[in-house]
Amino acid sequence: MTARWRLTALALFLAALTALTGCLKIRLIPASEPSSNPSSSVTTSSRRPVIPTVTPWPSLDLSRSAAFDEQVAGLIQAGLDARDKSIRLDAALVGFAVPEDQFKALVDHLHALYGTLVWTQPQFFYLDGSFQIRYTVRSDDTVAGMSLEPGYWDETAALSDAELDELIGSVLAVARAAADEIRSQTSLPRQQLILLHDYLVRHIAYDLQGDQQNNHAASALLDHVTLCQGYAQSFQLIGQALGLDVRIVTGTADGIGHAWNQVVLAGRAYHVDVTHDDPAPDGGAGQPVRHIHLFRSDEQMRVSHQWDRASSLPSPDDGAFYYRDQGLAVSSAAELAGALDRFVRQADLASGQSVLFERLYTGLEPLSEETLEALTQEALQAVRTKATVYYRTEYVKHVVLVQIGTSP
Fold it and tell me: Which of 99-103, 199-203, 217-221 has the lowest mean pLDDT?
């Protein structure tokens, strides 16, 4: 059988997380130019190049491929740093045979390697996380060569190198300024991350139109509107500017593709999801900030989030430090009732701004929504105002939220 350029059933393979642009979308397409040296290929009457079969090589074992992984990661990293539109990976295939019918497994492997590089380096926010693979096969149906083409957002794809440099500089300047402001307030990493969380909630609005082209750090930090990936990239960019270990986790939340963060403090990892702590529609910079998804454990996040545990750090401890550090934890319904009563009596509703009661519930006895509703109504009896009082209660991941105001 003659060798040929081939678009297999993998041609339109998408390895992407639903509704999350920036999780890796992989499209395999036939190469327009041979990846081997032109002098070693010939052209058939159908204009398809023939690549001669070489001496048989051992099959690539992806379960034992540390050297291959290191070489591929190095090639991709160098290509990303140089902003190459097409990154040649041929050198990594030398010495290995990859049958074409096993190519999907190789692409899945590349998906993981590429994802690790992109997700750990938020300066590549201008890439949309997708890539195309072009590949050739020999006459013995093994892969002869391949190249990877990083995908760009529509906005960044049209930029010249100088314009892209300017955009990157603007984003990094905002990240550094935010980090400097946070650092001026505290040197404690835990407190810095709380301030960073609140900064993003107050300065970014979730894009209710769901425009995936806004799903990156530039839109978040410059235009103040984004989706989950923009929140996660921004948290990572500013966190790293603070010198902290901040990572991105991808998976789903309530069945929808999603991205959030993990932070490492004193060797322990915790989940942070700024997106889910920023209510939609946006309440503006003056609205109180919730902290349900700040420093949480695997167990608490699994209530709504799903992800590949092998691709993230284990988070066995539920930090919830925002609550614990400020004494905002209660261990019984009676203690909750007392705290809520004191909060309501001290609340200033005359300004027209809503106020937010937050407590971490650590009691052994289950707390029901009905109990929380009853406690709230009882506490509100102490309110003295001629205006109508509105309230909303939530009990999420062991966090009690009661928002009170004089407008709906």
Answer: 99-103
pTM: 0.83
Identify the H or E element spanning 106.
helix 103-119
Pairing state of beta strands 225-226 and 205-206? Answer: parallel
Q: What is the mean pLDDT of the chain?
A: 86
> Which residue blocks in 204-320 are alpha helix, DSSP H?
217-218, 228-241, 298-301
Predicted local confidence at residue 56, as pLDDT: 63
Cα separation of 134 and 145, whole Å?
8
Report residue 326 as tokens. Answer: 């400020």
Q: Check residue 38 and give its pLDDT.
A: 27
Burial (CB count within 10 angstroms: exposed 0-12, middle 13-18, buried 19+), residue 369? exposed
Query: Is 182 exposed, middle or buried, given 0-12, 13-18 or 19+ CB atoms closer than 10 A?
Result: buried
Cβ atoms of 175 and 238 within 8 Å: the answer is yes
Strand pairing category for 127-137 and 26-30: parallel
- State how far the Cα of 188 lies from the Cα of 398, in Å rounded to an integer: 26
The Cα-based distances of 367 to 290, 293, 323, 394, 396 in angstroms read 19, 19, 18, 11, 11
Token pair belonging to 112: 């993981």
Q: On the CB side of 170, how many CA atoms lie within 13 Å of its CA?
A: 14
Q: Give the HSE-up count for residue 254: Cα atoms under 13 Å, Cβ half-sphere.
A: 1
Is residue 408 reached through a cis peptide bond, with omega within 30 degrees of 0 on the bond before it?
no
Do the strands 42-43 and 49-50 form a parallel or antiparallel pair, or are they unpaired?
antiparallel
Signed CA dihedral, 325, 330, 336, 341: sign only: negative
Residues in a beta bridge with 89: none
Q: Are 242 and 179 in contact (CB under 8 A)?
A: yes
Most confident of 3-12, 75-84, 275-284, 374-383: 75-84
Q: Torsion-angle region of residue 254: left (phi > 0), alpha (psi -120 to 50) or beta?
A: left
Q: Yes or no: say if 399 and 292 are a contact pair by the CB < 8 Å rule.
A: yes
**Range list of H helices, 158-209:** 161-185, 189-203
pLDDT in tens, 144-180: 889 999 999 999 999 999 999 999 999 999 999 999 9
Which domains are delineated in the chain? 26-152 (no CATH), 161-324 (3.10.620), 329-405 (3.30.1370)
Do 213 and 152 meet the contact criterion of CB atoms below 8 Å apart?
A: no
